[in-house]
Amino acid sequence: MKKALLFFLFCSPVLAYGQPRWQQQADYTINASLDTKKHLIQGQERIRYVNNSPDTLTKLFFHLYWNAFQPGSMMDVRSRSLPDPDRRVQDRISRLTEGEIGYQKIRSLTQDGKETKTQLTGTILEVHLPAPLLPQMSTVLEVVFESQVPIQIRRSGRDNREGIAYSMTQWYPKIAEYDHQGWHPYQYVAREFHGVWGNYEVTLELPSDYVVAGTGVLQNAAEVGHGYEPPGTTVTRPKGNLTWHFSAPNVIDFAWAADPQYKHERVQVPNGPELHFFYQPGEKTKHWPDLLPVGVKLFQFMDDRFGKYPYSTYSVIQGGDGGMEYPMCTLILGEVGFQGTAGTMIHEVAHSWFQMVLASNEALYAWMDEGFTTFATAEAGNHVFDRKLTNPQASTLDGFEKFIKSGTDEPATQHSDIFSTNAAYTVSSYTKGSIMLTHVRYIMGERLFWKGIKRYYEQWKFRHPEPNDFVRVMESVAGLQLKWHANYLIGSTKHVDYAVKSVVTGNEMAITLERKGEFPMPVEVTLTYADGTTDLIYIPTNETLGSKAFDKPVTELKPWFWVATEYAFSWSKNAGNIVSVEIDTKRETADVERANNKWMLKN
Predict the structure, then answer these.
(1) Cα–Cα–Cα angle for 162, 165, 166, nearest 5°?
(2) In the predicted model, is pLDDT for residue 14 greater than 60?
(3) Which segments of 202-336 does DSSP mark as H helices, in order?
(4) pTM above 0.90?
(5) Cα-flanking dihedrals φ and ψ of residue 6, to 5°?
(6) Which domains occur in the chain, in start order?
């Protein structure tokens, strides 16, 4: 028994804290041509798939995302049955004609030259392998496919509402992720993705007047031109089709867009990537040149606060249906004015750190990407636009307070597709994930928080971290227990609500606080005196088993045990001159009833 236990501890593929889990590898060579008259793609894939798991695989799963854009698909039915459907989808899929639908058809699929047996269910293709794939072995899959580009409805498609010809996302047959939890063959119902790391070599053939933008580094810039060519280079393009060759190392996906009217501009981030911007010039996009310096400041800020961006390029592309992140690029709407476009760009670029480098499973832990990105968006926007806000997260907390009062909150631990409303999904992923970082910063203190964020990024990049991985890193930096916090915020619908219950004045003030919500937190109480000076009182929760690292003197009292709904203490220093007692003065917690946080002396 002891030998078996030692083997598990030291040889298990799910390694100890701080070590990488095994990752599957899927290297793609894709050759595709786009018929812009019929909106058809003819493509071939060669995928070298490496089984780094300890398991023998007898089958694989592929995503065929565009099959969702057909009447009667799961995405269609789900959208029409939700009480608050996405306005971009609603019933639009149900009204698509044969020439407007999307599909991905597999013409052949072989494993090491042998035909496979397949079974299609919606957007998932099950592939039975003729030869089992053993641990630590690789195999070569060759796929011939045909796809029809759907009218743009959600993320992918042609002829978006701003007139961009092609937003080519989720456009190729893609192997599903297999990890220590097993296969992740999620139907494409609405939400986002989970992908396998791999190296991509992609060639795209389409008419030579189209400008192509997307993931990767263009390998034949001098032949293609369209703004990619080195300065001073003269490019003579053919009148027919043109082939583009992109290379992208160690990414989880490949996306691109194409339009004959794209204007292409570039700018270099000092000690960072070259940024590319693609947009249709016109009155509604006249603000796009102003995005270039914003992009530079954004990458510099994100590198400084969250960790180094690991790729050599990034492209901001007009396209899609709002804003959506992909490796080394984003597709965003571009006719919404400077502030709207810049704000969307900041959010989508920030995803590069969380979803494109850390790459948590968005189907299961959307809050680890969307929420952390929302937090970063507020911090970065405050810096880029020099807003000088003392609390950039206040608006997120205000929105959460309003939502909680609607009574439709749900735990964030659910699969992203099964929330009862889009609103509940949005709050659970974007808002609660952002509050996670806001709260952890409040619990740890500013200096240790940013140290922990960088350590988390460096330790888990390219490794698909899960919730406990984040918690453990922050615990190691703070020297505090933090699992309890995640259990409340992510695993429940309990909420924070603290109140100043009573203040009895005199030579010694008797102050009683009340925990009205079921979510315990450390409490910071500010005493303000008649002359405007203040004292800060810190009451740790017993759950942290330690104290916050403050950057200024505070008075720390004994811990507040979460089982107690009230906490009383007395204060004698300058007690006669106290004019207010307030909990969480800087608005750093998701307290859902701010009105009861403050007592003021009545004149």
Answers:
(1) 110
(2) no
(3) 221-224, 291-305
(4) yes
(5) -65, -40
(6) 23-196 (2.60.40), 394-489 (no CATH), 498-600 (2.60.40)
